[in-house]
Amino acid sequence: MPLLVTDYSWTQTDSVVYISVPLKGCKAEKVDILSTDEYLKVHFSPHLFEAFLFEPVDDVRSTAKVGNGVAVISLPKKTNKIWEHLMITTYDKVIQKKIREKAVLKYQEKLSLESVSKAEKQHAEKKYALETMMKLEKEERDSIQKMKETEREKTTSELAAWQLRQKEEAQLEHQSQRDSQNKVKVMTDKQDNGCLDQTATSEAKSKKKQADLPAPRLAASIKVTFTPRVFSTALRESRVPEEEEWLKKQAEARYAVNADVKELKDLKGNEKNPDWLKDKGDKCFVTGDYLGAVHAYNLAIRLNRKIPALYSNRAACQLKLRNLHKAIEDSSQALDLLTPPVAANAAARVRAHVRRGSAFCQLQLYAEGLQDYQAALKIDPHNEVLQADTQRIRDIIQGTPFY
């Protein structure tokens, strides 16, 4: 049976009631506060403070500050007037029970609405993040394509200019030959008919000179090709050994077959495909069928134990099912497979760290959870949600008062 707190104190103004409840050495994180428009409860085992309020209050704007050994609750009044008492004077247990049950139902409805609102907000944030990522990727692809087109046009124009210069040089050289032939013919006509030998010698020299001239240069085309790259970074900026090791692991994961597949000989069609089972598990998770998702991931892992996304997604299901130790184990297995750390698996490593850190925090192992959130923040330092969650864990570890 809880010990009722009687040494509380309260003050009021026309619009607000302030209640101070001593915590008797209890830590702030172990204090449970429930407040509605007619009822207030402050529970810190084994003590209990319970108030059936004299007048209705605005529970939406009500606040509570816990710290320094005391809980201070601010209750805005719905009607601006001075109360004669803090609580109603009736001691009828039936009436108190009805008020208490009504308060619990209202509090549960409030939590349910907050949960739905939070889920919708998270879905909207994920959708926005996905659309933003797709937009950035499209802009990057368009930029790369534009650069390729620019280089191709530049190369084509340079080649055309080179061909034009070659053609002009050939025409000038041909014209020079024709001028030289004309000069020789004029000089020959002016010579005396008695100088036939000299004329013959000149013609022979002219023919020899023409024979010694090189032929016009031939036109040609230059073919330009671009080196294919699996990763988006330039080759000179890439971490080649790590990227090759990651690609090797991905290839092994696609073709690896576990020894116990022989036991799964009754599977048919797509049931033997780990990728199909992963998609099925993802669909179950989206619809809230977390047990069905776990079964699909289990079967996919039996078929192929080297796909990190299977372990990471199963860890997310275990978090929903409150199997926190299994969530930590699956997240750790996913991180072991997500090596070496390269740009291609950065997002997957962030998800695995956050899921393991969340499981640690729900087990009240905040120091271990903080390490995982810091590791995720190191990979994605500009993620505002990660920054806020990491700071919240630091505040809990340092015992900072919360509201």
UniProtKB/TrEMBL annotation:
This protein's name: Dynein axonemal assembly factor 4
GO cellular component, one term: dynein axonemal particle
Entry keywords, A to Z: Cell projection, Cytoplasm, Neurogenesis, Nucleus, Repeat, TPR repeat
InterPro entries: CS_dom, CS_DYX1C1, Dynein_assembly_factor_4, HSP20-like_chaperone, TPR-like_helical_dom_sf, TPR_rpt
Comp. bias intervals (Basic and acidic residues): 168-192
Segments forming domain CS: 3-87
Localization (cell): Cell projection, Neuron projection; Dynein axonemal particle; Nucleus
Domain of life: Eukaryota
Region (Disordered) residue spans: 168-194
Gene: dnaaf4
